[in-house]
Every structure is written in C-alpha cells, then in structure tokens.
C-alpha cells in the first residue's frame, strides 16, 4: 500500500521516467527473478497512474456535450 501511495504523489513525468527505467531494466533480463517481479508490479502501478493522469488531463481539456438532436460533440472545458 505504501508503494501505491508513493506513486499517487508522483507527477505524470516522474512516473513515466521511472516506468521507462523499469522497462529498460526488464528488457535486459539480467536482474534476479524476485527483483524483476517487484519491478514488474511497480511498473504496472506506474502505468496505471500515468493512464489516470492522462485521462484526468483530457477531461479537463474537453467535455462531452449532447446537442438537442441527440448527437454528441466535445467542447473546451470551461472549469465550472
């Protein structure tokens, strides 16, 4: 749980940098099995965090509006 709380405090850029480091490390295949499993688990948490940050940012930039004819469109988020 502490590991997840640590990740939740990270910015998107921090999480992405750490995720890239973990991916490069795992791609080499030279680490010990237990360490690789921990890295993979942390990488999964980091990936999920980055996806949430991107989704949150998109929602701040756009909002979905429904026109009177039932069609959906996007509009700039007005912050209200």
Characterise this structure.
The chain has three helices and two strands. With 80 residues, the protein is an alpha+beta fold. A two-stranded antiparallel ribbon has the order 1-2. A hairpin with a 5-residue loop joins strand 1 and strand 2. The protein starts with a helix and ends with a strand. The mean pLDDT is 85.
Task: Give the topology string: H per helix, E per strand.
Answer: HHHEE
What structural class do helix, strand and pairing data support?
alpha+beta
Low-confidence stretches: none
Give me the number of helical elements.
Answer: 3
Main beta-sheet strand count, sense and barrel state? 2 strands, antiparallel
Give the DSSP E fraction (strand runs of 2 or more residues): 5-15%
Number of strands: 2
Rg, Cα atoms, Å: 18 Å
Calculate the terminal CA-CA distance, rounded to whole Å: 33 Å
Shape: elongated
Helix amount: 55-70%
Strand order of the largest sheet: 1-2
Provide mean pLDDT, rounded: 85
Describe the structure using short key phrases:
3 helices; 80 residues; elongated; two-stranded antiparallel ribbon
Please provide a brief summary of the model.
The protein has 80 residues and is an alpha+beta fold. The protein has helices at 2-8, 12-28, 33-61, and strands at residues 62-66, 72-76.
Strand and helix layout:
Layout: H1 2-8, H2 12-28, H3 33-61, E1 62-66, E2 72-76
Antiparallel strand pairs: 1-2
Helix pairs in contact: 1-3, 2-3
């Amino acid at each position: 749980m502490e590991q997840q709380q640590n990740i939740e405090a990270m910015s998107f850029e921090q999480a992405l940098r750490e995720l890239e480091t973990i991916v490069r490390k795992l791609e080499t295949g030279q680490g010990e099995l237990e360490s690789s499993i921990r890295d993979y688990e942390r990488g999964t948490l980091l990936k999920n965090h980055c996806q949430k940050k991107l989704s949150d940012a998109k929602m701040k930039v756009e909002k979905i509006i429904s026109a009177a004819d039932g069609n959906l469109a996007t509009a700039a988020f007005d912050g209200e």
